[in-house]
Design brief:
Length: 181
């Protein structure tokens, strides 16, 4: 079996440039291949937080997702601001979306979101000992309800598709594995 080849960028241009999403068209070539156009979605990094209260309940959020045009059940998360450490983003997003702050936060892992067409990573965190300290501080486009769910219900919510966001499922599975180890 031949080894995979790396592609060289011959030309690159932006079709769209926005702080939250840029679309880049790269013309690339590789040995044995002709020039071909590839489209890259550039996003900032994201965080997702599996947040657990002091009495072992998962802090989940419901919000409308424009891609699916439906309200989904998820873990809190958001965009890493330019120059911000992902762990600080995780604490900030958790507080903004839910009003909860963690007693402890740890990185579970960082994953590429979709390396075929995207350039960003998602940093998955486990926040434990979370306690409510205030109200939500939602952005102008956010409408989020908070639900506290027994940790033991999480596998069933994923198995039945009630939680179906792939990055959320990964984070929840990693967190459950760590918490039960």
């Amino acid at each position: 079996m031949d080894k995979p080849v790396s592609w060289k960028t011959v030309a690159s241009s932006y079709l769209l440039k926005h702080p939250y999403l840029s679309v880049r068209k790269d013309c690339r070539t590789a040995p044995g291949f002709e020039n071909h156009d590839f489209f890259i979605l550039e996003f900032p990094d994201w965080v997702n937080i599996v947040a657990i209260t002091e009495d072992n309940k998962a802090i989940l959020v419901r919000q409308f997702r424009h891609g699916l045009e439906e309200i989904t059940l998820e873990i809190p998360g958001g965009v890493v601001d330019l120059g911000e450490e992902p762990s600080l983003t995780a604490v900030r997003e958790l507080a903004e979306e839910t009003g909860f702050v963690p007693g402890d936060i740890q990185l579970l892992t960082s994953v590429s979101v979709n390396p075929a067409i995207q350039n960003n990573c998602c940093h998955l965190f486990l926040a434990t000992g979370c306690r409510l300290i205030g109200e939500q501080a939602l952005d102008g486009t956010e409408s989020i309800s908070v639900e506290l769910v027994p940790l033991t219900d999480i596998p069933g919510l994923m198995a039945t598709g009630k939680i179906h966001h792939s990055l959320n499922c990964l984070a929840l599975n990693l967190a459950l594995s760590k918490l039960t180890a």
